[in-house]
Amino acid sequence: MSQKAVELILMRQLASYLAMPILLFDPAGNLLYYNEPAEAILGRRFDETGQIPLEEFYSLVKLTAEDGSPLPLEGRPLVIALQKHEAAHRTFRIQAFDGIVRRIAATAFPLEGQGARHLGAVVIFWEESRP
Amino acid sequence: MRVTLWGTRGSVAAPGPETVRYGGNTSCVEVRGADGTFLVLDAGTGIRRLGGRVGPEMRVDLLLSHLHMDHIQGLGFFRPLDEPGQEVHIWGPPSTTLDLRARLSRYLSPPLFPVRVRDLPCRLTLHDVPLERFVIGGLTVTAALVCHPGPTVGYRITDGSTSVAYLPDHEPALGARHFPGQPDWTSGFDLAAGADLLIHDAQYSDAEYPQRVGWGHSSITHTLRFAEATGVKRLATFHHDPGNDDRALDRLVDEARGAFDLPFQLIPGTEGLSFDLESR
């Protein structure tokens, strides 16, 4: 396994110190890391899951719109950040590893390194109080 | 490949009788390939003496790790730059908004320096260093960003048989809850992995480091752990704190030797020291 770019390493280290839930993805959408506050919402510790390939992540974590309809890929903040290299924000429902449905607001932004290197994306999210 | 340390001091030059063995000049390392390929790593004050050893017909490739003053201060006093027609290439990291030329010109221009980059008589080419593998003569260079404030790269240089890794300013333990952690999450790991010689920042004692977290440098123990994790054969300590005299640096190395069972050779990085890396 090759070493991650230093920007990703520093982003993970920063995330590990912050009290807001943060997920870190590589350019292909594979989940590289999530911090302890995110563990509480995803329902499983990162030490248990480790890095998760994109397809596996979407098979384990169900995202739906606020009305319960399927959330199209192109409307997901992460996908917008990775494909369009733009920041994006949306409120939706998530059913993760513990099976509990939560309403969350998520903001994703791309990680662009010098030399036009696309390094991945960061998703910051928080649980909305209204179910 | 022959590697020579021309300046091993960090932060600011520290000449004087109390630093005469480790040396007072700031970062500069010479790398010579068996085919004559000539690389210079960083342009601290140590580069001035090295400049006197460079023939006017030689191609010079100067690789800057970053543009902090202790790594470029000797640049204006490097004789090949004043040699009409001498081929000189300077490689270094751009910032996210300025290329290397614009960044270097901030130093090589009045009022900080009387001569502008464009007025240097040598045949000078400036390169934004590619963050990948590239070839200079008979040597292959890999550059990668590493953990230090501002755009900073480390280098790995190989002749195809032996390799040297140069990480003069590096704080891979910054923010790491368990250091060293997994190799893929450790800054500089790929550059150093299995190197015959690692030249690495060891600026602080373990007692000093907690007061200087985030300054971009390593404690001696972090350096040893990094060298162990990356499986290098020899470690040369580097970027010595200007506040540490020869006796203090001897103590630092002796204590490290006594505290750890080291699977590599620990060598105090002293000015003038040379390493012959034999092809296998």
Along the chain, the helix and strand elements of chain B come as EEEHEEHEEEEEHEHEHEE
Q: Give the fraction of residues assigned to helices of chain B.
A: 10-25%
Helix segment tally of chain A: 5
Mean pLDDT of chain A: 93
What would you say this structure looks like, in words?
The complex is a heterodimer of chains A (131) and B (280). The mean pLDDT of chain A is 93. Chain A is α+β, with helices and mostly antiparallel strands. Chain A has helices spanning 6-17, 36-42, 46-49, 54-60, 77-83, and strands at 22-25, 31-34, 62-64, 88-95, 101-113, 117-127. Chain A has a single domain (6-127), classed as PAS domain (Beta-Lactamase, 2-Layer Sandwich), CATH 3.30.450. Chain B is of the alpha/beta class and 280 residues long. Chain B has a single domain, classed as Metallo-beta-lactamase, Chain A, CATH 3.60.15.10. Chain B contains five helices and 14 strands. In chain B, the strands form two sheets. In chain B, strands 6-5-4-3-2-1-14 form a seven-stranded mixed sheet. The longest helix of chain B is centred in the C-terminal third of the chain and has 14 residues, at 246-259. The chains are: A alpha+beta (131), B alpha/beta (280). At the A-B interface, helix 1 of A face loops of B.
What are the defining features of this structure?
heterodimer, A: 131 residues, alpha+beta, Beta-Lactamase, 5 helices, 33% strand, B: 280 residues, alpha/beta, 25% strand
